[in-house]
Amino acid sequence: MGNFPLVLNQINKSFNDGDKSIKILKDLSFSVKKGELAAVIGPSGSGKSTFLSIAGALLTPDDGNIFINGKDVSGLSDFQKADVRLHSIGYIFQTSNLVPYLKVEEQLGLVLKMANHNTEEKSDHVRILLISVGMEHRSSHYPHQLSGGEKQRVAIARAFANDPDIILADEPTASLDSNRSAAITGLISRIVKKKNKAGIIVTHDEGVLPFCDRIYAMQDGQLLEQTTKRGTNNESVQ
Ligand SMILES: Nc1ncnc2c1ncn2[C@@H]1O[C@H](COP(=O)(O)OP(=O)(O)OP(=O)(O)O)[C@@H](O)[C@H]1O
Ligand SMILES: [Mg+2]
């Protein structure tokens, strides 16, 4: 399991709809390797976000196991799960979810503070992260002063701030035009490769797929790997 920071085994999840219980995930098993970016596609309502929330220890399955860096988190308390999330997982959402009243550099500083990162190194670390996403020139800006693509760049830097082994992105390009979408996906893909992270992108955006190593479709509550490779990593995208 050492090469697989994230392993899901036989996950089931149902939600109640009135007095009916609807099964969304059915005996779903999935894993992602270090240095690999996986895409998850599928119709609206098929369970992609539910899967990602369970993979990120944000939502508890009805049964099944989730191994994060080899550790079974299924039986952990909420407090223990929060600790695993803080240190092992970076999240990127459809909208950047930046804190409106914090400057760009403070958004990252907050994450480092929560994880008790060494204070002296903090400002250097923040600067390096912002350089890696091409946003160091906006470090004193507030979110409302940034474009959609710039906000997503900051959100990516924030997701990688604690050096998590797993990066989970739920429709990170949904609010962007196709050029920005390619730039953002290229950026996620490059950082995943360079830092040897395991990444998952849930997407409706076909333009994301050429950047991904594997493509899975959510179908009848399970993730099925698609055999047709849609493209190869495009390293030239900035
Ligand atoms: N907390 C909840 N309570 C009840 N039903 C839920 C809950 N969360 C999700 N569902 C239902 O589970 C199904 C799967 O939802 P999910 O958000 O995982 O779909 P999705 O594939 O991400 O869809 P989309 O592409 O629209 O984002 C939907 O029918 C949704 O209504
Ligand atoms: Mg969703």
Describe the structure.
The protein is an alpha/beta fold. It has one domain: Rossmann fold, CATH 3.40.50.300. The relative contact order is 0.19. The protein is globular and about 50 Å long. The two termini are 33 Å apart. The strands form two sheets. The chain has a six-stranded mixed sheet with strand order 6-7-8-3-9-10, sandwiched between helices. The protein is built from six helices and ten strands, in the order E-E-E-H-E-E-H-E-H-H-H-E-H-E-E-E. The protein is 31% helix and 26% strand. It binds adenosine-5'-triphosphate (ATP) and magnesium ion. Magnesium ion binds next to helix 1.
Short description:
It comes from Cytobacillus oceanisediminis. The chain has 238 residues and is of the alpha/beta class.
How would the blueprint of this fold be written?
Elements: E1 6-17, E2 20-32, E3 36-41, H1 48-55, E4 63-68, E5 71-72, H2 78-88, E6 89-92, H3 104-114, H4 119-132, H5 148-160, E7 166-170, H6 178-194, E8 198-202, E9 214-219, E10 222-225
Parallel strand pairs: 3-8, 3-9, 6-7, 7-8
Antiparallel strand pairs: 1-2, 1-4, 4-5, 9-10
The structure holds adenosine-5'-triphosphate and magnesium ion.
